[in-house]
Amino acid sequence: MKAPLTALLIAVLSWAPDAFADKLMVAAASNLQYAMEAILKQFRDQHPDDTINVVYGSSGKLSTQIAQGAPYDLYFSADISYPRQLARQGLAASEVMPYGVGRIVLWSATGDASAMTLKELASEEIQRVAIANPRHAPYGARASEALEAAGVWSQVQDKLILGSNVSQAAQFVETGNAQFGILALSLALSPRLASSGSYWLIPDSQHQPLEQGYIITRRAADNELAWQFSAFMDSDRARQIMRDNGFDLPDDRPATPPANDANR
Predict the structure, then answer these.
(1) CATH for 45
(2) Cα separations (Å) of 253 from 205, 207, 226, 240, 244?
(3) Which of 61, 147, 203, 215 has the fewest Cβ atoms nearer than 10 Å?
(4) The whole model's pTM is what?
């Protein structure tokens, strides 16, 4: 009888780490990808036995998925109005928490975007411009507002290539399917884009603020790991990562974005 009991004990012990490990599913706006991965690296160092997965996409689509029952524990939106709407629907376990203010840039892998303005997108030499879809991507909505403010919407509208989110819009420009793109500063500062193109920071006076916020969803009300991650987002380390990735913080004065060589 000892052998079966020994085997049972070994089996129980081998499963024990999984039994006590927590799991977290995060939905995050695609502009947050590089900052989020850096923050998660720091957080995972403190929670090596826990499982944390992230799905990136457009804020509007992710919000719709949560409203339809998608199993996300935290939702980070590029437009704070989406988590506020979910909270009004009773789908949030936490308050809506601002985590950053985004900026948009004109970016190109082939032209010198740092020497341009939005008005020059009306030129006949420029035939394709990528932005995120304004219907469900906040960065696309702000891009269209900026084009309107610059007085070139009617000239540029037919040139637009719409990405499902701002990351896909960036891919269109990277691969040459578009000559220029209006993207998130956080993406333009990423190692991949910073080494392959140049950008011009679009004045924030030309569009509505990109105030971004997140919630712990109702399904994660009792998920201790979700609350721990929320607390970590307010840590000095996480806040500095956000700054390094081009975000202003809600309680900070606007910071000058890091310069790259192409913009000096």
Answers:
(1) 3.40.190.10
(2) 16, 18, 28, 14, 15
(3) 203
(4) 0.83
